[in-house]
């Protein structure tokens, strides 16, 4: 039914499509001019797709009936054809009938809707748990019990967004590091946010759940086919709302285990780096990159911020003053403002590099080199 | 009572005449409609192509927010209050509104509210940018400082609406002509009576919500701040307890207008008058108990989800009854298709499509996919634009000749109808596709697979926008130089007290109440 339904959809609703010629072109055009929901790759997404199609066809049938009568009478009962108005203005039978029939249809629709909803809500017996934390404007994925946690943020460069470079295929749908999960495994997501409300949506999984500060919402998925699936933040969360995509890489189970062990080694290596002493130049180079990734969305790449909303760091008292105050702001954030606590989001190495960068870029020129170990000591000393 | 209107600007500033005040409301709402429309044009221009071309995301959010707020509170609501002011006294045979001075006040505070709100566009930090639904904590902890102006503006609008509603209720309940029992009242009066009660019930809730925001922002409370023991979801419950009835506040008077136009041009009485009244009342009642269907993804317990899903579906029944009644009114009538009728028929078709998608989004599991996507944007523009705006336009074409004694240019008006109709559908129908394909709403920029339909939608929007300028032109031309009409019944099939008055309607009418059969 799926393909035929889509085709019908397309033929009825988008006559443009019928112009496209042969098979391949048609497929490409169908993708560009997509008109329907994806069937998706989970049992829930399939169930939802079916309900959607049932509801759609019920609406089409009712629509044809109702508008059919209307168009008929617009044609047949027009004054220009000499129609003389009848004078009836009520009919109890008809009114009772058209109250009962919609009621019955609705009851019929409620049955699959209820059973699918029960399925959506059934987070029991999950095989693994992933905690998803939303920040303005990125996602943090934490593999509970595995000591693996990382940030996933937009990888599309500003140049593409502001049209100075051509847009790549996955424009605004590519991230620094995708979420990785195994196929055919019931994964439970524990979703929360640190600042405003966001919503984690992957259409192919039919998973969408609000990420709300101070609350942990649960949902789940179990993906039938390996592949790369893309989604986005669905709840307005500020200026970066359109710029915090989701990418999920679904792997075969063995590949997933291999990825996980590799990831653990990587985490250990980064921890190791914390002990190293870097030169000012190394920190500046790493800092610029990390700053642009994590801070520039608010404080701007030129350090000037957005007046009245986000303070500039160029020449700011904090960025040119006492280092421990600077560390405090970045590690712990400023409560009640958009300035988040980055202590838990970034590694010591990144934090040290960013702070060094902020203290020396844009003419701040303090000459301070903050080392990862300083950051670690600051964190531990609290 | 024999005198005419005062001269000069004083006529408008100090007027207590329901027709003058109605006119003020209508012009104000049209001005706001153009303002909100120009915000929409900026939004659609930015979304014409992927990539940020003309504005920055920060400003984009201000545009979507201001578009929603201005259209809902500045354009649509005042438009129907304007129609109520003009028509209710004439329909029930009253000389004026019951509380004419309050009537003046409730209008004149509105321009201040909107001036205050629009002025934030020029302030540091920019205008409100948290969406017209202003969910906390984006609208509290994370809001620009101008949020305080927004809160004050909402309070003023609320006060205006409440005063307007009290006035309508007082007028309808006390000033009907002898013999006009409640069940003989015209549908427009009925729908407004019910709407006025809705407004009085929910505007204070909105005021409560913004006051709690004000406290959270300025006085250290934590109603909506989880860190202080509050709950961001509480905000949504309070907001939608106001917000859901609000959509019926907008649409019920539109139903009323359509229930006059269709019988007139079908030359046949409204089918099922009493069932229309009961349907309106039950829609109004149900509108209070379904609010959380806007919040299916906040993590409600499953019992709550099921309840809100079932309750919401119930609304489809009285709404469907209304559509069936309109179609039965047309059935075996003797129809002609002047512009008001064209808009009314378009209303029935497009509103029904919006109703269909409404039932779809009410299905909680399916809403997992629809929620906060462009599908929802399409849905509510089908009910708000094709519902409220089309019926408002229909009302103006329908009553304008009566008000000013001049007929609009029929062929130009028909052209305006067809441009609006095509423009509207080209704008919003593809948004269903975008939403189903996975494009979230309120996105300043989007992935490449959404490019084509967005471009189509933008082209439609520019067309629709242009058709509104044509509408303005037609109305002004009618008032200044339309063909004079003088028979009381401007339309052959029109029924009701308002059509017994001379055309154009004198400044004071029904100084002695008419007798209703
Ligand atoms: Cu977000």
Key attributes of the depicted protein:
heterodimer, A: 382 residues, alpha+beta, Helix Hairpins, Immunoglobulin-like, Cytochrome Bc1 Complex, Chain D, domain 2, 3 domains, 5-stranded mixed beta sheet, 13 helices, 10 strands, 45% helix, elongated, B: 517 residues, mainly alpha, Cytochrome C Oxidase, Chain A, globular, binds copper (II) ion
Protein model, in words:
The complex is a heterodimer of chains A (382) and B (517). Chain A has 382 residues and is α+β, with helices and mostly antiparallel strands. Chain A folds into three domains: 43-81 and 89-120, Helix Hairpins; 129-270, Cupredoxins -  blue copper proteins (Immunoglobulin-like, Sandwich), CATH 2.60.40.420; 275-379, Cytochrome Bc1 Complex, Chain D, domain 2 (Orthogonal Bundle). In chain A, 45% of the residues lie in helices and 15% in strands. Chain A has 13 helices and ten strands. Chain A has helices at 2-13, 16-19, 23-32, 43-76, 92-121, 158-161, 253-273, 280-294, 296-299, 317-320, 323-332, 348-360, 372-380; strands at residues 128-135, 138-143, 148-152, 179-182, 187-193, 198-202, 207-211, 217-221, 227-233, 246-251. In chain A, strands 3-2-1-5-8 form a five-stranded mixed sheet. Chain A has a five-stranded mixed sheet with strand order 4-10-9-6-7. In chain A, helix 4 runs antiparallel to helix 5 (92-121) and helix 12 packs across helix 13 (372-380). Residues 10-21 of chain A have low confidence and may be disordered. Helices cover 67% and strands 1% of the residues of chain B. Chain B has 517 residues and is mainly alpha-helical. Chain B has a two-stranded antiparallel sheet with strand order 1-2. Chain B has one domain (18-500): Cytochrome C Oxidase, Chain A (Up-down Bundle), CATH 1.20.210. Chain B is globular, with a radius of gyration of 22 Å. Chain B has 14 helices and two strands, in the order ααααααααααααβααβ. The two termini of chain B are 26 Å apart. The model of chain B has no long low-confidence stretch (mean pLDDT 94). Bound molecules: copper (II) ion. Copper (II) ion is lined by residues 134, 137, 198, 233, 237, 241, 244 of chain A.
């Amino acid at each position: 039914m799926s393909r035929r339904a889509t085709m019908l959809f397309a033929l009825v609703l988008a006559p443009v499509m019928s112009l496209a010629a042969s098979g391949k072109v048609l497929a490409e055009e169908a993708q560009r001019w997509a008109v329907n929901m994806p069937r998706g790759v989970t049992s829930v997404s399939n169930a939802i797709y079916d309900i959607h199609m049932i509801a759609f066809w019920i609406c089409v049938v009712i629509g044809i009936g109702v508008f059919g009568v209307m168009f008929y009478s617009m044609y047949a009962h027009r004054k220009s054809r000499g129609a003389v108005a009848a004078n009836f203005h009520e009919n109890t039978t008809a009114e009772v009938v058209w109250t009962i029939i919609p009621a019955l249809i609705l009851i019929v629709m409620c049955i699959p809707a209820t059973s699918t909803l029960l399925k959506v809500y059934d987070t029991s017996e999950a095989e693994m748990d992933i905690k998803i934390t939303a920040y303005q404007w990125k996602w943090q994925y934490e593999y509970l019990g595995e000591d693996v946690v990382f940030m996933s943020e937009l990888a599309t460069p500003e140049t593409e967004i502001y049209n100075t470079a051509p847009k790549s295929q996955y424009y605004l749908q590519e991230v620094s590091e995708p979420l990785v999960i195994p196929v055919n495994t019931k994964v439970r997501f524990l979703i929360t946010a640190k600042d405003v409300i966001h919503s984690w949506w992957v259409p192919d999984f039919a998973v969408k759940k609000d990420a709300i500060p101070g609350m942990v919402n649960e949902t789940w998925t179990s993906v039938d086919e390996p592949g790369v699936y893309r989604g986005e933040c669905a709840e307005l969360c500020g200026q970066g709302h359109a710029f915090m995509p989701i990418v999920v890489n679904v792997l075969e189970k063995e590949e997933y285990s291999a990825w996980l062990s590799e990831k653990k080694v990587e985490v250990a290596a980064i921890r190791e780096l914390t002990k190293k002493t870097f030169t000012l130049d190394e920190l500046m180079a790493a800092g610029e990159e990390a700053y642009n990734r994590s801070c520039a969305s608010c404080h701007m790449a030129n350090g000037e911020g957005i007046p009245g909303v986000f303070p500039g760091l160029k020449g700011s008292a904090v960025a040119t003053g006492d280092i421990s105050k600077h560390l405090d702001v970045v590690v712990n954030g400023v409560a009640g403002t958009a300035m988040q606590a980055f202590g838990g989001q970034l590694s010591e190495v990144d934090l040290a590099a960013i702070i060094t960068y902020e203290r020396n870029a844009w003419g701040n020129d303090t000459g301070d080199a903050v080392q990862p170990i300083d950051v670690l000591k600051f964190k531990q000393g609290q | 009572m024999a005198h005419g209107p005062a001269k000069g600007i004083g006529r408008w500033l100090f007027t207590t005449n329901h027709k003058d005040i109605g006119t003020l409301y209508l012009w104000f709402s049209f001005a706001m409609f153009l303002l909100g429309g120009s915000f929409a044009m900026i939004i659609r221009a930015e979304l014409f192509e992927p990539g940020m071309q003309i504005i920055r995301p920060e400003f984009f959010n201000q545009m979507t927010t201001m578009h929603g707020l201005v259209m809902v509170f500045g354009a649509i609501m005042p438009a129907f209050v304007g129609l109520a002011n003009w028509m209710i006294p004439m329909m029930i045979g009253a000389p004026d509104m019951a509380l004419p001075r309050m009537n003046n006040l409730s209008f004149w505070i509105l321009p201040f509210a909107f001036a205050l709100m629009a002025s934030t566009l020029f302030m540091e930090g920019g205008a409100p940018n948290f969406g017209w639904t202003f969910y906390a904590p984006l609208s509290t902890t994370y809001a620009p400082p101008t949020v305080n102006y927004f809160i004050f503006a909402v309070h003023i609008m609320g006060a205006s609406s409440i005063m307007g509603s009290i006035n309508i209720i007082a007028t309808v309940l006390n000033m009907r002509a002898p013999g006009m029992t409640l069940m003989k009242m015209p549908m427009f009066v009925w729908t407004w009576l019910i709407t006025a009660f809705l407004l009085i019930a929910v505007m204070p809730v909105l005021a409560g919500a913004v006051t709690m925001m004000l406290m959270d922002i300025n006085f250290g409370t934590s109603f909506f701040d989880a860190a202080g023991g509050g709950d961001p979801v509480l905000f949504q419950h309070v907001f939608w307890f106001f917000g859901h009835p609000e959509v019926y506040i907008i649409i019920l008077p539109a139903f009323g207008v359509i229930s006059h136009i269709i019988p007139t041009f079908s030359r046949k009485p409204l089918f099922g008058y009493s069932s229309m009244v009961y349907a309106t009342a039950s829609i109004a009642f149900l509108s209070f108990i379904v609010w959380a269907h806007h919040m299916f993804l906040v993590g409600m317990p499953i019992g709550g989800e099921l309840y809100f899903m079932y309750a919401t579906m119930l609304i489809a029944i009285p709404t469907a009854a209304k559509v069936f009644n309109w179609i039965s009114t047309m059935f075996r009538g003797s129809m002609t298709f002047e512009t008001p009728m064209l808009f009314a028929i378009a209303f029935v078709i497009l509103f029904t499509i919006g109703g269909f998608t409404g039932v779809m989004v009410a299905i909680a599991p399916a809403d997992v996919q629809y929620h906060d996507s462009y599908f929802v944007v399409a849905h509510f523009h089908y009910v708000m634009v094709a519902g409220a705006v089309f019926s408002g336009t229909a009302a103006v074409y329908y009553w304008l000749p009566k008000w000013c004694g001049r007929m609009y240019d029929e062929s130009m008006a028909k052209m305006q109808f067809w441009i609006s109709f095509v423009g509207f559908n080209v704008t919003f129908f593809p948004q269903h596709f975008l939403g189903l394909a996975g494009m979230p709403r309120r996105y300043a920029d989007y992935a490449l697979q959404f490019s084509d339909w967005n471009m189509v939608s933008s082209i439609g929007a520019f067309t629709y926008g242009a058709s509104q300028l044509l509408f303005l032109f037609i109305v002004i031309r009618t008032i200044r130089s339309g063909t004079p009409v003088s028979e009381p019944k401007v339309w052959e099939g029109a029924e009701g007290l308002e059509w017994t008055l001379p055309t154009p309607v004198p400044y004071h009418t029904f100084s002695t109440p008419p007798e209703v059969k």
